[in-house]
Amino acid sequence: MAKIDQSAENFKTSPLGFLMSVLAKYSAFVERSLASKPDSQLEAKNAGAKDALSNIKIELSQNASLKNQVSNEALMMTVMESFPKSEQDAILDVIFEYIGILDEVLGTADKESENGRALINEYYDVSRLGLILNCYLGQFDNDDFFYGTLAHVMETITAYYSENKTEEDAEKILALCPELVSKIEKAGIDLSFDSFLKENFDTLAPEEKDIFYKKIIRPYADSLLEKIITKEPEEEDAGHLACVKQIQRRIEKLLIK
């Protein structure tokens, strides 16, 4: 079985472990509520949370491909993608309900105490988890959005490294990004984004693939995620993040083929 750290403070290094801890904590909270007030709807949700936790553990013990994933976030998504949509939706429901529970608790907590600060950190981590899963599991039916988003990412990264040319791999990034933007502009109107991405990704050298994923796509997505969680996001940021995360997921699958 893959080793998963289930502590909340290690969300970024072990998102699947954090997801498992949220399911377990939600179940414990619901069981305390049910002890004083029976509720058939809550009982059903609790059963779903327990089933999801059990199914994640089964997948961890049986799926040998998990050892080959390029990141812990990719590992989490490989597990999530093995479940039917109904179970994915049920897990999302639990996460967002747990956010609501934490919000209520924070309303009466001493936010300056050690326990209060821990609750705030957990609230933001669960919010990150819910947002990430929502991004990955959503759907876009317009390839133009993918093309436009990827071009925007390349142009943003180009602008950054043009101002910071001394940073590691800046020269390679400044060569790679404009070339990809040019290919996007020349892509045939009937060429699907998935076909475009695969065709162009396959032409990259191993080092370029690594740079494209680790220095361009993931840092951009992570930066936008933190902006949405911790700052005042712009109206289009959530949809933009979802698109970038789905591009990231496509690249992760191409990396392990």
Map the helices and strands.
Layout: H1 15-36, H2 40-62, H3 72-81, H4 85-108, H5 114-137, H6 143-163, H7 170-186, H8 193-202, H9 206-230, H10 237-255
Helix pairs in contact: 1-2, 1-4, 2-4, 4-5, 5-9, 5-10, 6-7, 6-10, 9-10
Structural notes for this entry:
The structure is a single chain. The chain has about 260 residues and is mainly α. The protein has ten helices and no strands. The radius of gyration is 20 Å and the shape is globular. The chain has helices at about 15-35, 40-60, 70-80, 85-110, 115-135, 145-165, 170-185, 195-200, 205-230, 235-255. The model is unreliable at about 5-10 (pLDDT under 50).
SSE ordering? HHHHHHHHHH
- Sheet-strand content, in percent, reads under 5%
The helical percent reads: over 70%
Q: What low-confidence regions span 5 or more consecutive residues with pLDDT below 50?
A: 4-8
Number of strands: 0
Number of helices: 10
User: What is the residue-averaged pLDDT?
Assistant: 90
Task: Measure the end-to-end span.
Answer: 22 Å
Largest sheet, described in full?
A: none
Based on CA inertia axes, which overall geometry fits? globular
Structural class by sheet pairing and helices: mainly alpha
Radius of gyration: 20 Å
